[in-house]
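Z., the sequence and structure:
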Amino acid sequence: MSKRQITIKPSCARDLAAFPAAQSSQLWEKINLLVGDPLADGRMKKKLRASNDIYRLRVGDYRVFYQFGDEWISLLGIRRRNEATYEAVPEASGSGPLPPESDDDLDTVLAPELEKVFTFRPHDIGRRLPFEIGIGWLNSLGVPPSARPALMRCRTEEDLLALALPDDVMARVVDAMFPPSIEHVAQQPDLVVASTDDLVRFKEGDLLGFLLRLDDEQLALTNWALSGPTMIKGGAGTGKSTVAIYRVKAVLERPGATGTEKLLFTTYTRALVAASQQLLGQLLTPEQMKRVTVSSCDQVACDIVGAKRRLRRFEVDTEARKRLGGLRSKFSPPAESAFESKLRARALGRLTDHYLLEEFDWIIAGRDLDNVEDYVATPRPGRGIAFPERLRRAVWDLYQAFRASTTKERFPEVRREALHAVRDPSWLRHWDYVFVDEAQDLSPTALALMAEVCRGPEGLFFAADSKQSLYSRNYTWTSAHPGLQFRGRSATLKRNYRSTREVDQAAFSVLRPEEDEVLEPSSSMHEGPIPVLLRGVSTTDEAKWIARFVQQMSRYLRLGQGAAAVLVPRAEVGEVLAAGLHEAGVPATFFAGRDLDLKAAGVKVLTMHSAKGLEFPIVVVAGLHEGTYSVPEDFEETGLYAERIRHERRLLYVALTRAMRGLMLVAPNGCRHEAVESLDSSQWSVENV
């Protein structure tokens, strides 16, 4: 039998980083032997009697815990044989002191699981650490010298978890102080280790991390339909992006490849570019990486346009809405008569600034419409309100005035300009393959741009999730570009590896299907605490309650507070909450979407839109204050409200599904958000303030 594929759990990787360097050679030797023959021998290797097929390997004073199958072996943890070892693995009830030579007492009951219901409790400041943190212990963990003084000052769990340390340092310290049960570790995702040499490189700091291991369903899709166009669909956390990473290697090494093919891999947010580059760098050879470009769709558009002219400062949506509102206050639609102008103005007056801006971005610029006649003739399904010709002509004239009223750049127009540029026969910088993640939220113009920069449709790969689509899919893929023919060339992933079953079910209840749409829940592979719905909190006390949840959930999950994110509907709300969290003793920073630093210490506060494609162990969705969501009386047309609340339901779903384990939704006093009011309370642990 060939050697088994090695995988490692994230917490075991941290154990490895802290393993004594002087004993590393013995560890590598034993792991190599293990890969060849993991079966218990009664001495060096033993099966834990009361476990779910968990084994232990003796390496001097340390124990390596593992599971295995016919073709794989999973490293679960590395623990020194002392009191701490037995707190995290089975110990016999009433078994006295640990024996010095035998570890049979590892073979009894497993540590109990965390309770599922999370409840607020009085904040018991002062739960002391199990031992005093010393310089020797920190040295053994490989903690950077810059972090040691703050750690050595900690006396309580709250002191420790509140430190603004890098996530990897915090996780290493917490795992060493409060070792998770081996049974709990077994539920973590598997990371792929190409060979023992990669473990050595990781231990020495030359390798930053490992790729996720694919399940059989995902693995089959890495080599499926390599000649596109191909699409993989799936809900949040189903591994679409991970499959895309592995498909990159598959297409570059497909039979007939020349070794000169170039590939574009686009992520939805700029924050994911660096992470994707690192993962691809582990999977591909250095020569292959030179042929791969990782970017966002908007950055590709900017690069194309920027090669032709100098780009000016970009206008954000809040600035654009403010400018549009000012323009409308003095805009008089041109018409054949004053009476007709008044009729057009009255029709325009029933539309909100937000709706009109979406019309500009998703229908006119989004479909690359060049003249009013094309706009009059263009179908607009899913927009919630019918536009007669009179209204369309008024909207077109307002759009022209809106474009002319600024010198700043806007992404919808830059995408459009980039599309025109690549359609010019003189543009020759095509990629052989183009991979597009989160394709459901790209406008038709952006989709067409991605299709055009690819040398041919056979090189296209898209990943999408209709449940996360923030805008009505008022177009078909082929209407965006004739090369996007996915019929018979799409597959669906259904297993959710990100969120717990409790988070997934609570979030799914927010959605409502559109006409002719069938929403299917994903199948979550993990369980955890029931999400908290906090009702009735005042906006002035909101930050205090969020801080309380983050403090208690981080302690409950044994995670640093930097593992948490607070997601809000608007930037101005996020800035206020970040300041309030600081005052409540929880370090927090608000990040505008394009400035997000996932490695920054402390709680990340960002808008729901900016969170797309990201994940966090702990999430709080908050800031649902009056004026940040739609209510029926804000709209003269019921269709406008229906379209807007559809968008807000999907946005709330996206925010909730960023949570991996701990989730709280804050419904402040007087909250009338339709999706929040209609929540299925049986899926939540409801706390009324």
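Residues 83-113 have pLDDT under 50 and may be disordered. The longest helix spans residues 638-656.

Let me know what you think.
H.
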